[in-house]
Specification:
Keywords: Oxidoreductase. Pfam families: adh_short. Belongs to the short-chain dehydrogenases/reductases (SDR) family. The chain is of the alpha/beta class and about 325 residues long. It has helices at about 10-15, 35-45, 60-65, 85-100, 125-150, 185-210, 230, 235-240, 250-255, 255-260, 300-315; strands at about 30, 50-55, 75-80, 105-110, 155-165, 215-220, 270-275, 280. Strands 3-2-1-4-5-6-7-8 form an 8-stranded mixed sheet, with helices on both faces. The protein is globular and about 50 Å long. The relative contact order is 0.14. The protein binds NADP nicotinamide-adenine-dinucleotide phosphate.
């Protein structure tokens, strides 16, 4: 169906096309990074579905200002979080589960502003790996009972992990080198590793919990903004993102996230990396119209399992399977 400018759907178009306006009343969602350019669009679209939103943010007063007219106090609650600290994530998770026993949707969108030099969090992990991946991995583990409890045949629970086409640049470092212990640090490579970790986390969630009604997708949310494109410190990434083929306004960067989060075609499904509102094609495929493809390493069950095991050890949790 034709939509708006340039015939591309907006996030709100996806909500309307799926006939989801007001359809998720009574259900809860948690969205990280909600005060980012992407986050504001996600909040606006998901609020229109009737979902009650819990937004973990570093600064609630600032978030209200940033959200602007997307802030609806009747639909939105905040909890404080600092993704650079695993203790803060544990504290935030405690507050979230004190508000609701059932969570139908978790959107992991937060990203940190990296420095060009190696920085470790106070827990001792490389900053981008720690914030983009580990903090979300811990948050997922702590909210998993509520996600499983919320799953219903008509709307099975979903985890949406906002990744990036930049994950194509680099897979996971080897065991013992996630924090660049063995080689020189490169901020753009560290970003790519953290985004590959996002993809792997979604793939592994699907493998482990899909049959229990908890599904996960990872999503390329490329757009031209002041956000991640400027943060990686990688000039080539900046140029990549500014190329005409990748040029999308914010409202056209988020539809894929919203489609994964509430779209009917993804009901009861997961384990895919999405780009441009669909499963991303393989590299060099004729479908590769936008330069946003899967890498050879986008699906790698062995590395997905390794990351899961190592991440559990890093956050100090035991496997539940
Ligand atoms: N922008 C792009 O072109 C692009 C392309 C592909 C993928 N992506 C992905 O899309 C997602 C959003 O990116 P974006 O560029 O829209 O983000 P952004 O504008 O840089 O915003 C980052 C968000 O994370 C929050 N945040 C930062 N540090 C935090 C911390 N220590 N604790 C808690 N929250 C923290 C920020 O909150 P405050 O504002 O309050 O600090 C903000 O809400 C990311 O996963 C990114 O990798 C972006």
């Amino acid at each position: 169906m034709p939509h708006s400018v340039h015939d591309e759907p907006t996030a709100m178009d996806i909500v309307r096309d799926n006939n989801m306006e007001g359809k998720l009343l009574g259900k809860w969602a948690v969205i990280t990074g909600s005060s980012s350019v992407t986050g504001i669009e996600i909040v606006r679209a998901l609020a229109a579905t009737g979902l009650r939103l819990i937004l973990p943010v570093p600064n609630q007063a600032k978030a209200i200002v940033t959200l602007g007219d997307a802030y609806n106090p009747n639909r939105i609650e905040f909890v404080t979080i600092d993704h650079t600290s695993l203790d803060s994530v544990r504290e935030a998770a405690k507050h979230i589960v004190s508000k609701t026993e059932k969570i139908s949707l978790l959107v992991c969108n937060e990203t940190v502003t990296p420095s060009p030099d190696l920085q470790l969090t106070k827990d001792g992990f490389e900053m981008q790996f720690a914030t983009n991946h580990l903090s979300h991995f811990l948050l997922f583990q702590l909210l998993k009972p509520e996600l499983l409890a919320a799953s219903r045949p008509r709307f099975q629970s979903r985890v949406i992990i906002v990744a990036c086409a930049e994950h194509n640049r680099h897979g996971l470092n080897e065991r013992g080198n996630y924090n660049f212990e063995k080689r020189g640090y490169d901020s753009a490579i560290a970003y790519a590793q953290s985004k590959t970790a996002n993809v792997y986390m979604a793939n592994e969630i699907e493998r482990r919990y899909g049959s229990r009604g908890l599904h996960a997708l990872s999503i390329d949310s490329a757009q031209i903004t002041v956000g991640a494109a400027q943060q990686t410190g990688g000039e080539s990434l900046r140029l990549d993102l500014q190329s005409e083929a990748r040029s999308k306004s914010c409202s056209r960067g988020t539809p894929t996230i919203i489609r994964g989060a509430i779209g009917r075609e993804w009901e009861g499904k997961g384990g895919r990396y999405l780009s441009h509102c669909a499963g991303a094609p393989s590299k060099n495929s004729e479908e590769d119209l936008h330069g946003t493809t899967c890498a050879k390493h986008t699906y790698s069950p062995a590395d997905e399992a390794r990351l899961w095991e190592d991440s559990l050890e890093m956050i100090g949790l035991l496997d539940d399977q």
